[in-house]
Amino acid sequence: MAITTDNAPAPPVAGKPGATSTGRAGDKIFLGLSQGSGILLLVIMASIAVFLTYRASLALAENEGNFLTTFDWNPAGDPPVFGIAVLLFGTIVSSIIAMVIAVPIAVGIALFISHYAPRRLAAPLAYVVDLLAAVPSIIYGIWGALFLVPYLEGLNSWLDEFLGWTYIFEKTEVGVARSLFTVGILLAIMILPIVTSVSREVFLQVPRMNEEAALALGATRWEVIRLSVLPFGRSGVISASMLGLGRALGETMAVATVLSPSFVISLHLLNPGGGTFAQNIAAKFDEANELGRDALIASGLVLFVLTLLVNGAARLIIARRKEYSGANA
Amino acid sequence: MAKRIDVSGLTAYYGSHKAIDDISMTVEPRSVTAFIGPSGCGKSTFLRTLNRMHEVTPGGRVEGKVMLDDENLYGKDVDPVAVRRTVGMVFQRPNPFPTMSIFDNVAAGLRLNGSYKKNQLAEVVERSLKGANLWNEVKDRLNKPGSGLSGGQQQRLCIARAIAVEPDVLLMDEPCSALDPISTLAIEDLISELKERFTIVIVTHNMQQAARVSDRTAFFNLAAVGQPGKLVEIDETERIFSNPSVQATEDYISGRFG
Amino acid sequence: MSNVIQDATPAQAVTGPGKDTLSQRHLPRWAPAGFAAVSVALGIGIGAGAGLQSRIQWGLISAALFVVISYVVTSTVENRRQAKDRLATSVVWVCFLLAVIPLLSLIWTTVSRGMKVLDAYFLTHSMAGVPGFEAGGGVYHALIGTLEQVGLATLVSAPIGLLTAVYLVEYGKGALAKAVTFFVDVMTGIPSIVAGLFILSIMLIAGLAPSGLMGALALAILMIPVVVRSTEEMLKLVPNELREAALALGVPKWRVILKVVIPTAIGGITTGVMLAIARIAGETAPIMLLVFGSQLINTNPFEGAQSSLPFYIWEQYKVGSEASYDRAWAAALVLIAFVMILNLVARGIARWKAPKTGR
Questions:
Q1: What SS3 state is found at B195?
Q2: In the predicted model, what is the mean pLDDT of chain A?
Q3: Total number of domains in chain B
Q4: pLDDT at residue B222 is higher than 50
Q5: Among all residues of chain A, which has the CA nearest to that of B165?
Q6: Tens digits of residue pLDDT in C311-328
Q7: Which chain C residues have a beta carbon less than 8 Å from that of A137?
Q8: pTM of structure
Q9: Which terminus in chain B has less CB density within 10 A, N or C?
Q10: Residue C50: what are its φ and ψ, rounded to 5°?
Q11: Does some domain include residue B154?
Q12: What is the pLDDT confidence band of residue A2, given thresholds at 50, 70 and 90?
């Protein structure tokens, strides 16, 4: 803020013009930098779409099979043939299993921490859940493969025995439990902390006066939760679930370690086999030639679009519920 | 419906802090009793002990007896949920359930307590909204969210919600402090009507309001900050405001306090 | 007690149990513990009796029994509403236990199996010349790789993320800010493998070779949105009065941001960056695609293949021998320790340097 005497057009009033001119230049530079970063971010997003699409188009031009319906992945073959049918199926099925298991349990744990746990237990518990959300997925992966898979044998044969009539729990092939079902369970365990952590935060934000309104009507603890906590937290839980779903859809390592992949579609979820986008990329990358890599990029593009759709849907749901969520606080 | 409240030797704590000390009083049925006193004197705490809402605050604890006709609210087998069902409450800031429609807000308490046929429910909702002088303003938009109403309307919605379950007693914790004068007047009129059916206890900071709406007035005070609040006296409102028997009450009412 | 009782229609609903009298029969306070003990005993009994091997089944049976017993007993002794309340409570407890067991087992397995080969030798040697299926070797090269890649990613993403957040909070209005906000959200959802494929496609087009830098760029893409989000939150916590006070003194806006806003929020920003680092440090997929992995020490992240901790775990897992599993667990323990320490320190900073605004 030096007082500059040169090139001051008007008589300087206590050195102000000088100060503002450096201020203005600084303001411009700073605004440029920060706006530039924002624009760079948009450029990155755009180029992700453009580059992936470009490489994918190269691969699709060579593909002799139908990209959407082919049950095979052989871009190195003659003629090259690859398709995403199995991967799409496996990705969606394993993620659905994960969501079905994880979301109710996560909401339960979040409620436990926010409304049921003894106070002295609640704070450390929340802390532990947050830490668990940070455990890298590769560690979930090796734990799942080396520890969880053997433990799930019993549960699998049990499901087969008692729920085999539902078709989906019928186990028609022998083999260890390296199935889409196991993958779903592992993904559920993996996304549990993040879904819990976000839901808990939303539940804690429920205005005290909303809960007291229910209490004063003579509501039991559960009724308080049903009347004021869950309605208030619903959009938060949805966005937390979508966050978890996004992770489950794109998870690579935890699936790659646990699943024994095969290019079949089977609704017998307990049978080993199947595949997901990310797992397939990890498994096929090492041996892939250039066309093979482009083919994997093409499948990655589908995964990208899938996660975009999930995110967009989450955003829409939240935006639509906003008019209701605003407590008049 | 309306019942008599008989409090004896009631002391309430927040953790180890004693908030109010050894309070005894009687609240007559079908009357309005106002609690006045400086901030922090425990009148809101005392009000919340009357429907066992005090104990939902962490560390909240109560000793003593509160008889509702012939039942002790703090008796051994008494279910706090049943108490709150019998002793309704209206809060300082209007707190309708934000995600529910006006209709559902009023019906919320009823739905907790049993299954109703649709037309029965509609009947009770209409009766309660009429009772809260709100029916004419909202009858065309019962399915709109309750949070879309004005502050005064929201507060009357909360009163409708509270009286829909036909409580014996209605507690009001500074129900007008967040409202403008016109809404305040509407609520005060409503209180005078409601006392035909309910025992009403109201906490207020506004002495004119206490003088206007209440039949009896209780003055609370505390010896010093950090000391527990105490009941100084309770008497006919007219006498409290004209010729109280304790000097402190007169000082407070005439503004010569502190 | 007059008008409602005479009124025939609503009476049936209004005079439910608990209306006439406030008190009712109560289960003793130790009842839930009792239910739990009975159901666990029954669960073990049924499990052992039916010859079910897996403890998971025993646990599931006990959990189901606990929920059912709590509900049935409460609804007979107390009433249906209380029973529903009890049902919710027991379900919530079961959820908690159901989730805690696998998560604790994960931590316990990693720690107990990781301790086996984790020592100073392991931390200071690479895998050079060690056949994968034999014991020996260490994680040094992977540690170096992780530190360099994560460091580079932070150097790239922290300034971009910070400036973007400043733009959104201090300047952001209009369509551009809206677009940026939206795409930050979208970017948060990008799977790590897609970020890897993006850089891969650039490498294929430009003919670049795998290196630590390529991995770092992919990690930076994953890190930027996390940094933007957390920084944004922190900047929003800085009270407007502070900004206005400074602006009223005639200080230009950029200096207000640099000298007042950012210093006030710096604790939270640091925490956000560290949490973002912790998150990307465990990413395997981009490294697999872009850095290629190596058994040797390569301290130059700009040229040649490198390893990283998560990639090392994957590699050792794939070898599939007892010795390599041991190394995988040990590396997993190192990685968890790294991530946890970052987390703990970050949260510590957040607590110490929280903006003192009397929130």
A1: coil
A2: 85
A3: 1
A4: yes
A5: A217
A6: 999 999 999 899 999 999
A7: 282, 284
A8: 0.85
A9: C
A10: -80, 0
A11: no
A12: very low
Chain C positions in Cβ-Cβ contact with residue A256 (cut-off 8 Å)? 314
Q: Are strands B216-222 and B229-236 parallel, antiparallel or unpaired?
A: antiparallel
d(CA A300, CA A280) in angstroms, rounded, equals: 10
> What single letter denotes the amino acid at residue A113?
I
Q: Which two tokens stand for residue A166?
A: 């539902």
DSSP state of A164: G
What is the three-class DSSP state of B219? strand
C-alpha–C-alpha distance, residues A238 and C176, integer Å: 27
Domain ranges of chain C: 25-113, 140-352
Closest in C4, C14, C24 to B82, CB measured:
C24
For residue B88, give the nearest of A216, A219, A327 by CB distance: A216
* Nearest-by-Cβ selection for C1 from B1, B85, B116: B1
Strand arrangement of the beta sheet that strand B169-173 belongs to: B71-72, B60-68, B5-14, B17-27, B229-236, B216-222, B32-36, B199-203, B169-173, B87-90
Structural domain span for residue B29: 5-94+170-253
Is residue B86 a part of any domain in this protein? yes
Q: What is the DSSP letter of B113?
A: T
Average pLDDT over residues A103-122: 90
* Owner of token pair 């709109």: B144
pLDDT at site B115: 67
Q: For the purposes of burial, counting CB atoms within 10 Å of the CB of A15, is it exposed (0-12), middle (13-18) or buried (19 or more)? A: middle
On the question of pLDDT at C20 being above 80, the answer is: no
Query: Among 1.10.287.370, 1.10.260.40, 1.10.3720.10, 3.20.20.105, what is the CATH number of C140-352?
Result: 1.10.3720.10
CA–CA separation, B249 vs B204, rounded Å?
15
CB proximity B125 to A under 8 Å: no
C135-145 mean pLDDT: 90
- The type of residue at A235 is S
The whole-number pLDDT of residue A327 equals 37
Return the residue matching tokens 């000097």.
B247
Region C243-267 average pLDDT: 88
- Hey, what are A197's tokens? 């952590």
Chain A residues whose beta carbon lies within 8 Å of the beta carbon of residue C84: 220, 222-223
pLDDT of residue C354: 62
Of C191, C204, C336, the CB nearest to A139: C336
Q: Calculate how close chain C gets to B115, using CA atoms only, in Å.
A: 7
- The answer, yes or no, to whether residue B71 has pLDDT greater than 90, is no
Which DSSP helix (H) or strand (E) runs through A255?
helix A253-258
Q: From chain A, pick out residues whose CB is under 8 angstroms from the CB of C199.
A: none
Measure the CA–CA gap between B231 and B176, rounded to whole angstroms.
23
- Specify if B147 maps to a domain: no
Query: Is A111–C92 a contact, with Cβ atoms under 8 angstroms apart?
Result: yes
- Confidence band for A133, pLDDT divided at 50, 70 and 90: confident
Among candidate residues C80, C82, C74, the one with its CA nearest the CA of residue C35? C74
| Burial class of residue A153 (count of CB atoms within 10 Å of its CB; 0-12, 13-18, 19+) | middle
pLDDT digits (tens, 9 = 90+) for B97-108: 888 899 999 998
Instruction: Check which CATH number belongs to the domain holding B235 and give it.
Output: 3.40.50.300
How far is it, in rounded angstroms, from Cα A262 to Cα B69?
A: 75
CA distance A267 to chain C (A): 23
Q: What is the pLDDT of residue C355?
A: 53
Per the model's pLDDT, the better-predicted residue between A319 and C59 turns out to be: C59
Give C221's pLDDT tier (boundaries 50, 70, 90). very high
- Mean pLDDT on A276-303: 92
| Helix (H/G/I), strand (E/B), else coil: C10 | helix
Cα B175 from Cα A273, distance rounded (Å): 65
Q: How far is A313 from chain C (nearest CA, A)?
A: 11
Report residue C121 as tokens. 């030798």
Inter-chain touch B86–C3, beta carbons under 8 Å: no
pLDDT band at A18 (very low <50, low <70, confident <90, very high): very low
Residue B229 lies in a domain: yes
Domains along chain A with CATH numbers: 73-325 (1.10.3720.10)
